[in-house]
Design goal:
The complex is a heterodimer of chains A (388) and B (290).
Chain A lengths: L4 H10 L8 E3 L2 H11 L3 E5 L12 E4 L2 H11 L3 E2 L2 E2 L3 E5 L5 E10 L4 E7 L6 H7 L5 E4 L8 H11 L3 H20 L2 E11 L5 E3 L2 E5 L8 H4 L9 H8 L3 E4 L4 E5 L2 H13 L6 E4 L6 H12 L6 E8 L4 H14 L6 E7 L2 H10 L4 E2 L2 H12 L13
Parallel strand pairs in A: 14-16, 16-17, 17-18
Antiparallel strand pairs in A: 1-6, 2-3, 2-6, 4-5, 7-8, 7-10, 8-9, 10-11, 10-12, 13-15
Helix pairs in contact in A: 2-3, 5-6, 10-11, 11-12
Chain B lengths: L9 E5 L4 H13 L2 E6 L7 E2 L3 E4 L2 H8 L3 E4 L3 H13 L4 E4 L6 H13 L3 E3 L5 E4 L3 E4 L8 E8 L3 H12 L4 E6 L10 H10 L5 E7 L4 H12 L4 E6 L23 H10 L3 E2 L5 H10 L1
Parallel strand pairs in B: 1-2, 1-5, 2-4, 5-6, 6-7, 10-11, 10-12, 12-13, 13-14
Antiparallel strand pairs in B: 3-4, 8-9, 8-11
Helix pairs in contact in B: 3-4, 6-7, 7-8
């Protein structure tokens, strides 16, 4: 789960990390008031779940409350990487002497959280890693022992020469690590970590990604989810315990299991079509899930054909068949549907579908080919589909 | 012959009285797996299905029955503890089926299990099956048949799909291993490939990877340097958008790393044959085990 910069900053502030003040505004007038209260120049930052906000024009300096109002009225409602900006963070502009990067990522290869720090901060760290890898220090942490003081100091010495700053940075490393562990993060980043002309070390931007598997035991973090920042269909799917990701194509896919779902989308592409979504109805075969899945898929106006691909291992294919019958009785389909199912109780499932006027096949490749043809508007062959 | 489990596998089921644990314990018994014990704290002394003794702790179960393998069906927040308990009790093969285990928990479990000299498979995996001998986990037994193809995969239903097609085409399996879809898991592709290479009854390997991480790229290097047996590869997620978690916690393209194209290129560079779609496994494997 992604959280906004202002939320990540709040979590880091709670852990003790020095962060300049900031307030969130959802209207230009509110922003003007906040800027007046701070006085002087402020920074306006779009709060969206996307990187590269600065390049997209979502981060601006405002020299007066009036200018803040004007800027915010332009930024609110702006699209950044397909996401609409609905909130901005207003924060006093800081005097910056130097910028560094500090991050912790959960590293698959070492199977540990890994600190990554670089004195070349403020820019894309992937770029630094590619062009000047010697400017990055990576330090894996054994979570059974945690970040040791000598490790925090080593990270600090990589960033700064002056001992006072090194110690300040080391303290921030400890606080960041604590926040990373306590909040169930898979990524926590301060970019930039700046030094001020007065010698202070402060965090000017923060990013945190939370491991979805942690949300059950961190209710306070789960409550930070901003559903207005996500596609409505994905919110609806999550509330129905489905894993759904919207794509741009026209073949709606309903599959059981993530690997098979991806393989099905790939097969749609292989046969010249474009998948409209990733949707995993999971291992259990609750007919209600099928009903919800069809609701979400048929709500997408781009969908020209629906493809079911079910392999019954644990899932009972007759349950899925019942779900399809129930769902289409409740909401009659306006696009053709192609059903492929095989495995547990296949014969019963086929009979249920046949009795209700559907046809189904047990061949995955054939089903995908049919769905692709139907989405392209090819004539409906009698064995292929039903619906008007 | 087979890898990791065979007819001598003696199993303890952690969470045997839970909904999933009891359902799958029955299925495993039906398949012929030797389940010697179950564990549910507070239910020690009772029996599962009037036959399998239940213990309060894994240590008790191992002391009384000598179980050499454990399978875990406990809820996500308790799963890490269950894995630590099994390793601490001296179990040498631990199979964690549970989906949704916090990844940070696995950063503690992984090194502990390794230090105990145990092998962990999973979490978030379907387990494994050596057809005709033993199954540990949830892979449906009737889609498999004994033979000489080794199967290893990060996915559940995609594996079933391919195994079912192999079985229908008369290509039996030595062992099918689902290593799981999480970013940190106990056993990776290389561990399985090495075991298949050493197994005299495995003639060729079917390997199903997906987007995210570099496990497949590392496996390709291993195939090139250490394997004489043919390996056919497949990658799911060629149409997956970057930055989105595709169901499995580990199936995510981060930045530009972990794409399907990158993994397929690694397979090809290692001289492996690549199935462009799941059904192609049948033909490609048939050509290689003739």
């Amino acid at each position: 789960m992604n959280i906004h910069e202002y939320q990540a900053k709040e979590l880091l502030r709670n852990a003790g990390v020095p962060i300049p003040p900031g307030e969130v505004a959802t209207t230009a007038e509110e922003a003007e008031g906040i800027a007046r209260q701070y006085g002087g120049t402020v920074v306006v930052k779009a709060q969206v779940h996307a990187g590269g906000r600065g390049k997209a024009g979502g981060v601006k300096l405002a020299k007066s409350p009036q200018e803040a109002k004007e800027i915010v009225s332009k930024i609110l409602g702006m699209q950044i990487k397909g996401l609409t900006v609905q909130k901005v963070l207003i924060t006093p502009a800081a005097d910056i002497a130097s910028e560094a990067y500090v991050g912790i990522i959960l590293d698959r290869a070492s199977k540990k959280p890994v600190f990554m720090v670089s004195p070349a901060g403020g820019i894309d760290i992937e770029e630094v890693a590619a062009k000047t890898p010697e400017k990055i220090l990576k330090l894996p942490i054994d979570t059974r022992y945690g970040l040791q003081p000598y490790q925090a100091m080593r990270l600090g010495f990589f960033l700064f020469d002056d001992l006072k700053r090194v110690r300040a940075a080391a303290k921030i490393m400890q606080q960041l690590y604590r926040a990373f562990m306590d909040n169930g993060c898979s990524l926590a980043e301060i970019n930039p970590l700046v030094t001020t002309p007065g010698g202070d070390v402060v965090a000017l931007d923060a990013k945190m990604v939370i491991d979805d598997n942690e949300l059950d035991r961190h209710e306070n973090i789960a409550a930070l989810r901003d559903e207005s920042a996500e596609a409505p269909s994905e919110v609806q799917a999550r509330n129905a315990n489905l894993t759904f990701i919207k794509l741009d194509g026209d073949v709606g896919c309903v599959v059981n299991g993530a690997g098979l779902a991806m393989a099905t989308m790939d097969l749609v592409k292989f046969y010249g079509g474009d998948p409209a979504n990733f949707l995993d109805i999971g291992g259990s075969s609750n007919p209600e899930k099928v009903v919800n899945a069809l609701k979400i898929i048929t709500a997408d106006p781009n969908v020209k054909a629906i493809l079911f691909n079910i392999f019954g291992g644990i899932t009972r294919t007759d349950d899925v068949a019942n779900g399809i019958v129930t769902a289409t009785k409740q909401n009659p389909l306006t696009v053709p549907i192609v059903i492929r199912l095989t495995g547990t109780n296949e014969e019963i499932a086929m009979k249920i579908l046949k009795d209700n006027g559907f046809s189904a096949s047990s061949d995955m490749d054939e089903a995908v080919k049919q769905a692709v043809a139907l989405a392209k508007g090819s004539p409906v062959t009698p064995s292929a589909a039903r619906g008007a | 012959m087979s890898v990791f489990i065979d007819k001598n596998t003696t199993l303890v089921v952690q969470g045997i009285t839970g909904r999933d644990g009891s359902f799958h314990a029955k299925q495993m018994i039906e398949y012929g797996t030797k389940i010697v014990a179950g564990v549910t704290p507070g239910k020690g002394g009772q029996k599962f299905e009037n036959t399998v003794p239940i213990f309060n702790t894994v240590a008790d179960a191992v002391a009384a029955t000598g179980a050499n393998t454990s399978v875990i069906y406990v809820p996500p927040v308790y799963a890490a503890d269950a894995m630590l308990e099994a390793a601490d009790a001296g179990v040498k093969l631990i199979v964690a089926i549970t989906e949704g285990v916090p990844v940070l928990d696995m950063t503690r479990v992984y090194p502990f299990v390794k230090e105990k000299g145990a092998r962990l498979i999973g979490p978030n995996c379907p387990g494994l099956i050596s057809p005709g001998q033993s199954k540990v986990g949830i892979i449906p037994g009737r889609i498999c048949t004994p033979g000489n193809i080794g199967v290893v995969s990060r996915s559940g239903t995609l594996t079933y799909e391919v195994v079912y097609q192999l079985t229908r085409a008369g290509l039996g399996q030595s062992t099918c291993v689902g290593i799981g879809g999480d970013p940190i898991n106990g056993t990776n592709f290389i561990d399985c490939l090495a075991a298949f290479e050493a197994d005299p009854n495995t003639a060729a390997v079917a390997m199903m990877g997906e987007i995210g991480g570099t496990d497949e790229q590392d496996a390709a290097t291993f195939v090139k340097q250490h394997m004489k047996k043919p390996v056919v590869g497949f990658i799911a997620g060629q149409t997956a958008p970057p930055g989105r978690r595709m169901g499995h916690a580990g199936a995510i393209i981060s930045g530009s790393a972990g794409t399907a194209a990158e993994k397929i290129a690694a397979f090809e560079a290692a001289g492996m044959s690549v199935a462009k779609r799941p059904l192609e496994f049948v033909q490609l494997l048939r050509d290689r085990v003739k």
